[in-house]
Write a structure and sequence with these properties.
The longest helix is centred in the middle third of the chain and has 34 residues. It contains two helices and no strands. The chain is rod-shaped and about 55 Å long.
Length: 51
């Protein structure tokens, strides 16, 4: 039994694939959220969106 839980996950190919898909999904989601936030900020600066 190793101390690092990620090392245990990398030994099993199925878990490695699931972890890879999870990380890719999180990267795509964070990119989309950054783009949406930037667009909302630009629209707010231009005065199109009023709070």
């Amino acid at each position: 039994m190793s101390i690092d839980p990620l090392e245990d996950m990398f030994k099993d190919p199925d878990r490695r694939a699931k972890l890879y898909l999870l990380f890719v999904g999180l990267q795509i989601l964070s990119t989309v959220l950054i783009v949406v936030g930037t667009l909302i900020f630009i629209l707010y600066l231009l005065g199109i969106i009023k709070v």
